[in-house]
Every structure is written in C-alpha cells, then in structure tokens.
Amino acid sequence: MSQLGFYYDQSLCTGCKACQTACKDKNDLDVGTLFRHVRSFETGKYPNVGLYHYSATCNHCAEPKCVQGCPTRAMHKAEDGTIQHDRELCIGCRYCTWNCPYSVPKYIEKLNVVSKCDSCKDLRDKGQNPVCVDACNMRVLEWGDLDELKAKYGDTVQDLPILPPSSLTKPSILIKPRTAALEENPREFRQNPGAKGV
Are the CB atoms for 114 and 95 separated by under 8 Å? Predict the structure, then answer.
C-alpha cells in the first residue's frame, strides 16, 4: 500500500493562513471550526527570541488512533493510505476526537457527525492538489507519495516540541523545520487572544 502525505517547509512559512482559509472555504466550515489550523509560537528570552508558524491538519497517519477508536468504521484507512470518513456511518459518538493525539477530527454539532480533512479526495481524484497546497503563496506545502517526497527533499523531521511523539501514530508528514521550532518550551503566540480565527 502506498502512503500519501504532506511535505511542509516550515522554514519558509510566513503564517499568512491562506492554506487555512482555502480549506475552510472549500469545506464550508462554520466559525470556530478548522480542518487546517495555522498557529504561531515564540521561543527564547529577550534579546534571543524566535518565532515560527505551524500549519497543521490531518496527518493521515500510518497507525491512526482515530480509526482504532471508531466503533462503526466510519473513520477508515483508504487504499492510498489516507484517512477517510464516511458520514453515513458516523453516529457522532466522538471517540475519534478523543483518541486522536493531534485533535484533528471535529464534531459538527448541527449535523451530529464528525468530520475532518480528507486531503481533498474529490480534487485528487481529478488529478488536482489539495486546496491548501495551491493556496500557499510561499509554496511550502506539497502533497504526494511519502517515499518520493523523502527522496526529493532529503532531511526532514516528524517530531517537534509542540507535537505528540511521532511514534504514537506514525504521521504522514515530512517537515523541514525552522531552527526555532526545534527549541524546547515554546509558547503559543496570539496577537488577539479573544479572536476565534477565521
């Protein structure tokens, strides 16, 4: 089975949230619900400080906890290695939301189902990219076969201090990290702590 996933060049990410907005728009998500979420973090102490951004979505893990926790098999692993969700089978129990260490599946209250990033399967079936990839002004996101992405980009990481250990789920993401993102004890940076985001 092939394993598809994302490459993310965090070293060039400006935190503009174009990927987040494109995803939200395509999936017609309500305020406060995000399938791709860009967060910013700061490290160090004045005068030696660092700032970086992290664009997160479903990691389409090789060993997905969300699938293991789904009693109806609504959450399932597809042949291409992506994690897909069948709304017809979903009973809204939210076990997947509790099991995912990345807090990826989102409960949609008005529909009483869970939903999440499906890596834009409808677009991929037409030979197109996920919308987040094409929306990125800096072209820091790429989607494809993980082995091919590893060969193309070389040294990458899957573990950062802000993330759960990759050994938990074997996430399908390759990250070229910004130096600050490897520092311990990061603090989430919020320009407007009261805002819920787009």
Answer: no
> Any idea how long the chain is?
198
pLDDT in tens, the chain (198 residues): 579 999 999 999 999 999 999 999 999 999 999 999 999 999 999 999 999 999 999 999 999 999 998 999 999 999 999 999 999 999 999 999 999 999 999 999 999 999 999 999 999 999 999 999 999 999 999 999 999 999 999 999 999 999 999 999 999 999 999 999 999 999 998 766 555 555
Please state the pTM of the whole predicted model. Answer: 0.92
Is residue 37 within 8 Å of residue 20, measured between CB atoms? yes
AA letter at 139: R
For the chain, how far is it from start to end, CA to CA, in angstroms?
Answer: 36
